Amino acid sequence: MPENNFMIFNEAFKEIDTMNDSEYQAATQRQKGVASGVADRRLHNKFYRQASIMVKSLANFIEAQGQDATDEDESVLLDSLQNAFSAFIGTLLESHDGDANAHAKIRQLISNAVSSASSGLNSHNVSSSAHSAKFAEYLKLSTGGTVAGPTTFKSSVTMQAASTIPTQPTSSNNTNIANTAFVKAALLAFLTDRNFIKAVMDAIGSETLSQYGVKYNFDNPNAWSISLGRLFGGLILQGGATPRPANNATTATFATSFGGTDYIIVPVGVIDASDNKWGLTVNVLKDYKKADSCTFRTSDSIAPACYYFAVGMLVA
């Protein structure tokens, strides 16, 4: 079983100890950051609950895809996140590939078109006047008359009233003339062949995803991103780690710019085991929240650095 040790802060949640949404929205310390003096416990219970719920949700998603989600090692967690998304998207594509009805509408349209063409050609084939000009030329040759114009005729064609051509099996690759029944059967055989459909999907799969803006970048573990493209509303997931703070501030520079500043970002403080301070905090500076970066205020001039996770849209 996958391991998941992320938990929700303030899980018991009592309103007497936690700000409601209206209070939290109006709170000065939320808007401007923690100032000197006594910190508001109800505000901090609300903040850490929101941040930890987001982290817990992501950890649950990782666990659901069969990956471990623990805070023991950042690189292992990042690998788990990448593997979880790969497994999730792979399951969607595999489900699509295995669905016999995935292309039912297209198959029906082609079937209708083939049926219509077949009906028209059959009417043509049985018409006594459809090839009257050629019949006349053959008649002249058979009776020793003189033919005007081209005199080369294909000897393999037998002209008879309501003539038909033998239907070849769909597996045939010979050079015999194909009648409409063969064409219809061959098309339907291709459209119901799962291996053929899967081969087509495999051939165009990566190009199709790229065409719709689906991409990811894990080259830098401190600034990675996953863009799900316009098929998923332009959603971007990204995260990483900030440098060590200076003058009570540190900045996260994103791997991919958001379409605006209406994204959600959750910073989590990271300190060394040797640090002797227990109350270090990190908060988002709203005035320094930009499309390509976000600055956090830290409770100590040089600590803590932080990991962050951000969710937003490519287009504002």
Helix/strand layout:
Elements: H1 21-26, H2 28-32, H3 41-64, H4 74-97, H5 104-126, H6 132-142, H7 180-191, H8 194-211, E1 214-217, E2 223-228, E3 235-241, E4 249-253, E5 264-270, E6 282-289, E7 293-298, E8 305-313
Antiparallel strand pairs: 1-2, 2-3, 3-8, 4-7, 5-8, 6-7
Characterization of this structure:
The chain has 316 residues and is α+β, with helices and mostly antiparallel strands. Helix content is 39%, strand content 16%. It is built from eight helices and eight strands, in the order H-H-H-H-H-H-H-H-E-E-E-E-E-E-E-E. The protein has helices spanning 21-26, 28-32, 41-64, 74-97, 104-126, 132-142, 180-191, 194-211; strands at 214-217, 223-228, 235-241, 249-253, 264-270, 282-289, 293-298, 305-313. Strands 1-2-3-8-5 form a five-stranded antiparallel beta sheet. Strand 6 (282-289) and strand 7 form a beta hairpin. Helix 3 packs across helix 4 (74-97) and helix 5 (104-126) runs antiparallel to helix 7. The longest helix has 24 residues, at 41-64. It starts with 20 loop residues before the first helix and ends with a strand.
